[in-house]
């Protein structure tokens, strides 16, 4: 018999009196429900689910007021992230918050140890686990092997780069078309990823100049 744990310990720092009051209200149970207020709109919550998912305690006073969020045994990082996202959206829309966690086992069972991190903004929650990282690297390694195999096959068949021009053009036009049919945010995100922020800024300045004229 072995026990598994998910543990973390992080703080929301430099809370104002208004922020502290809002957090206390969100963490308090709603009458007739037994559920913390912040969980009432949690997408994955079942009607009879009233578990906060973590321990919490206010510490310090004045400018040093903070909310300590922790778990000693089986914490729920998604619920912490849900609370913090709501907090950032209401009070600090231009800031971010992160949490790292550990997954352990009371016995040295293979594959039972790991961890990960959560990155929270007012707009989204991103999570990466240690196991997820290994899976991503495994797929990348396998793709590299597939790449080498396909390059060798093309060379064996006497294929040169010009022979694949049409196929590459068709493949590249699909995501480009989807991005252009999306939002301005998606276009800028794509340009930053492909070209970097400085070159993207130059493009925006150039397009803005044409629009203004």
Strand order of the largest sheet: 2-3-1-4-5-6
Please indicate the count of domains: 2
- Uncertain residue ranges: none
Number of helices: 6
Helix and strand content put the structural class at alpha+beta
* Mean pLDDT reading: 88
Strand-residue proportion:
15-25%
Main beta-sheet strand count, sense and barrel state: 6 strands, antiparallel
So what's the overall shape?
extended
Number of strand elements: 6
| Helix and strand run | EHEEHEEEHHHH
Output the radius of gyration: 24 Å
Descriptive report:
With 213 residues, the protein is α+β, with helices and mostly antiparallel strands. The chain has two domains: 4-132, no CATH class; 161-213, no CATH class. It is built from six helices and six strands. It has helices spanning 17-27, 77-91, 130-156, 165-180, 184-195, 197-212, and strands spanning 4-12, 55-59, 66-71, 96-105, 114-121, 125-129. Strands 2-3-1-4-5-6 form a six-stranded antiparallel sheet. The mean pLDDT is 88.
Describe the secondary structure blueprint for this structure.
Blueprint: E1 4-12, H1 17-27, E2 55-59, E3 66-71, H2 77-91, E4 96-105, E5 114-121, E6 125-129, H3 130-156, H4 165-180, H5 184-195, H6 197-212
Antiparallel strand pairs: 1-3, 1-4, 2-3, 4-5, 5-6
Helix pairs in contact: 5-6
């Amino acid at each position: 018999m072995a026990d598994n744990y998910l543990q973390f310990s992080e703080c929301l720092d430099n809370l104002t009196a208004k922020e502290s009051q809002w957090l206390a209200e969100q963490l308090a149970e709603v009458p007739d429900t037994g559920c913390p207020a912040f969980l009432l709109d949690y997408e994955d919550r079942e009607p009879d689910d009233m578990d906060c998912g973590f321990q919490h305690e206010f510490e310090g006073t004045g400018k040093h007021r903070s909310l300590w969020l922790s778990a000693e045994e089986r914490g729920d990082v998604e619920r912490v992230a849900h609370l913090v996202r709501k907090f950032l959206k209401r009070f600090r829309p231009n800031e971010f918050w992160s949490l790292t966690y550990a997954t352990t086992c009371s016995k040295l069972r293979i594959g039972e140890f790991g961890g990960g991190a959560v990155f929270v903004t007012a707009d989204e929650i991103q999570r990466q686990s240690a196991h997820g990282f290994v899976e991503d690297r495994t797929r990348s390694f396998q793709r590299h092997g597939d790449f080498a195999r396909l390059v060798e096959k093309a060379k064996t068949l006497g294929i040169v780069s010009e022979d694949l021009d049409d196929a590459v053009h068709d493949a590249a036009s699909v995501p480009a078309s989807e991005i252009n049919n999306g939002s301005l945010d998606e276009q800028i995100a794509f340009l930053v990823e492909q070209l970097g922020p400085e070159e993207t800024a130059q493009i925006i300045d150039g397009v803005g100049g044409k629009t203004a004229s």
